[in-house]
Write a structure and sequence with these properties.
Radius of gyration: 27 Å
CATH topology of the largest domain: Serine Threonine Protein Phosphatase 5, Tetratricopeptide repeat
CATH superfamily of the largest domain: Tetratricopeptide repeat domain
CATH architecture of the largest domain: Alpha Horseshoe
Number of helices: 19
Distance between the termini: 16 Å
Shape: elongated
Number of strands: 0
Strand content: under 5%
Order of helices and strands: HHHHHHHHHHHHHHHHHHH
Length: about 325
């Protein structure tokens, strides 16, 4: 039986959350929602076109509720005022009151869900976000909160549908293309991951893992030539990570570019001296280049680290017979 010469293992170690992850999404929404009445009635885009006065002191909203506790707007304004003061737990009571007073208010229902998400009570946030969307399917902010909550609950498949709606409505929203691509990547749906990740990079999402995830997705789909560019970019952006160089070496090796592959594998093992597969593939590259001594040396090192690498044992045995 002919030996399987190449150890082909793509790393999939990315985390969806990060500098542009869900917490930032919630925080940005809170800042956007600073002036409640305009936003909930008109939406984000309309708010940006309006000139608004600075928010009133918290006591103003508390007095309004004391004067008329059955006033929907007073309760809602108080909840938003608490939220803007960073008092999310205190915001829950007036927001709950507002939802009870006006159960058909999609904005109030969404904002209550947003508060639960801010308090990391994501299961409750999901329930209120879904309810808000039944009242107003066009309320994108509720879908954003839903995506954030699903992510924090580890419900990655559930993130896909609301993300696709957000992207359709906001085709320039680089962060959400990045997030959708990352979700597909995490779920092992590499073909589906490619298009949103390419768009995220084109739109300059700022997430340095986009290139990594795109390169890995292309590599997993056998599109080795296309994988080179994003994998090189990823190795420059995260030069300290051995898997970045290993995956780049894998793409080069698949294209029979053994000199380039050897350089990448060598860098991977410099960064991670216990990386058995890095030594194994470096040995394979040396073998392909006719460098028997270096190939044997790296195969043996790989087996010292991990004696269970059967392919490497076969490769070494066949090479020593030559």
């Amino acid at each position: 039986m002919q030996a399987i010469r190449f150890t082909n293992a793509v790393f999939h170690t990315s985390m969806i959350s990060g500098a542009t992850g869900p917490q930032v999404v919630v925080w940005n929404m809170l800042k956007t929602l600073r002036y409640f009445p305009l936003l909930l009635l008109l939406g984000n885009e309309a708010l940006q076109a309006q000139e608004v006065d600075p928010p009133l002191p918290l006591e103003y909203y508390e007095d309004a509720v004391k004067e008329n506790p059955r006033d929907f707007t007073a309760q809602l304004d108080l909840g938003v005022a608490f939220a803007n003061a960073g008092r999310y737990e205190d915001a829950l009571e007036p927001l709950n009151q507002a939802v009870q007073l006006n159960p058909q208010s999609a904005g109030a229902t969404h904002y209550l869900g947003l508060m639960y998400a801010s308090l990391q009570r994501f299961g409750v946030a999901v329930a209120y976000s879904k309810k808000a969307l039944t009242l107003d399917p066009g309320l994108l902010e509720a879908r954003m909160t839903l995506v954030n909550s699903y992510e924090n609950l580890g419900l990655y498949k559930e993130m896909i549908a609301p993300l696709r709606v957000i992207i359709k409505s906001r085709p320039g929203a680089a962060h959400y293309f990045s997030l959708l691509g990352s979700v597909y990547h995490r779920l092992g749906k590499f073909q589906e991951a490619i298009d949103p990740l390419q768009k995220a990079i084109l739109l300059n999402s700022g997430n340095k893992e986009d290139a990594k995830n795109l390169g890995e997705a292309l590599l997993a789909e056998g599109r080795y030539e296309e994988a080179i560019g994003p994998l090189k970019k990823a190795s420059r952006q995260m030069p300290e990570l051995a898997e970045m160089h290993y995956n780049l070496g894998t793409a080069y090796a698949k294209l029979d570019r053994f000199e380039d592959a050897a350089k990448s594998f060598a860098q991977a093992i410099r960064l991670s001296p216990g990386f058995a597969k890095g030594y194994a593939n470096l040995g394979w590259c040396h073998e392909k280049r006719g460098e028997k001594t270096l190939a044997v040396e790296n195969y043996r090192t790989a087996l010292d680290i991990n004696p269970d690498l059967k392919n490497v044992k076969r490769n070494l045995k066949l090479l020593l017979k030559k």
